[in-house]
């Protein structure tokens, strides 16, 4: 699995509309055959920062994503909204998606 984490700091004027701005990109990516997950979160420390966690079944699926029309369109649209160059971690990881965490389970109430 290809695991990618991207930290994006957006301009304050775009913070509240960021998820709408990336909505079509998110849907198109989730519809890709090799996409395992594509999830946005917002930082609790910096309200202008969003974190994207992506998983692709293979290097080929990741390459197809980066070469897609919706990726190129999104990069162009996001360029106006970001405040700094995004930070990224991209690595090959074992497995094919999320696993259950062994150290924590819900208590029976």
UniProtKB/TrEMBL annotation:
Any one GO molecular function term: monooxygenase activity
Oxidoreductase as UniProt keyword: yes
InterPro entries, alphabetized: ABM_dom, AI-2_Isomerase_LsrG, Dimeric_a/b-barrel
Superkingdom assignment: Bacteria
Record keyword ATP-binding present: no
Protein keywords: Monooxygenase, Oxidoreductase
Gene3D superfamilies referenced in this protein's UniProt entry, alphabetically: 3.30.70.100
Top EC class, one word: oxidoreductase
EC number: 1.-.-.-
Domain (ABM): residue spans on this chain: 2-93
Name of the featured protein: Quinol monooxygenase
Organism per entry: Streptomyces nondiastaticus
Lineage, broadest ranks: Bacteria, Bacillati, Actinomycetota, Actinomycetes, Kitasatosporales
């Amino acid at each position: 699995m290809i695991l990618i984490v991207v930290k994006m700091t957006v301009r304050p004027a775009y913070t509240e509309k960021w998820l709408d701005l990336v909505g079509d990109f998110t849907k198109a990516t989730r519809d890709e055959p090799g996409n395992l997950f594509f999830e946005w979160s917002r930082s609790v420390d910096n309200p202008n920062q969003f974190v994207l966690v992506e998983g692709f079944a293979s290097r080929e699926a990741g390459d197809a994503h980066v070469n897609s029309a919706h990726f190129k369109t999104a990069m162009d649209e996001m360029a106006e909204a970001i405040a700094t160059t995004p930070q990224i971690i991209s690595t090959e990881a074992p497995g094919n998606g999320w696993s259950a965490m062994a150290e924590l389970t819900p208590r029976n109430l």
